């Protein structure tokens, strides 16, 4: 066989190989894509979906299981205290949790101002209360911004801002521990704001995973 004939035969064989490779590649790609969507489907169809009928209970169970210092009963009682929760979806529960935070922050600021009216207040306690008032006052606009981000489904930004607000009650409470034997007059208030912030963060994270 001439060299020209050999080259023609080689070219034909190469074309056949390329054709077979292309078909195989298409089959592999199709299988991979099908497998991907199957995995994606089963990832969201494993029976863990939060339904409307049990949304508060299921949300609180998940939150309590994954969040230290947050009890199931506190979560349920907090969310059910707002009538809007009766027909809320997961996203709306996050807004409710933020509104509960805002209410508790406002209430705590009001209580701090009342305590500061006491003329006989110990100077160390007064200084700590002044610090707490500043912390909670700074938290108000940050929480407002967090709510705006959450409404726009910018969950990462909302998470960062709520985490920042969460520092207010813990920093406030820690300030009273600097003096041995001193009991904070804001322990319960700080605890409630902290737990509501933890609940809010938990719901934000749940919404993040649904995106």
From TrEMBL:
Domain named Pectinesterase inhibitor: residues: 51-203
Source domain of life: Eukaryota
Cellular component annotations (GO), alphabetically ordered: extracellular region
InterPro entries linked: Invertase/methylesterase_inhib, Pectinesterase_inhib_dom, Pla_a_1-like
Cross-referenced NCBIfam families: PME_inhib (TIGR01614)
Record keywords, A-Z: Disulfide bond, Membrane, Signal, Transmembrane, Transmembrane helix
Protein name: Invertase inhibitor
PANTHER family: OS02G0537100 PROTEIN, PECTINESTERASE INHIBITOR 12
Transmembrane segments annotated in the record for this chain: 26-44
Organism: Momordica charantia
Key word Iron present: no
Example GO molecular function: enzyme inhibitor activity
Assigned protein family: Belongs to the PMEI family.
Keyword Transmembrane helix: yes
Coiled coil: none
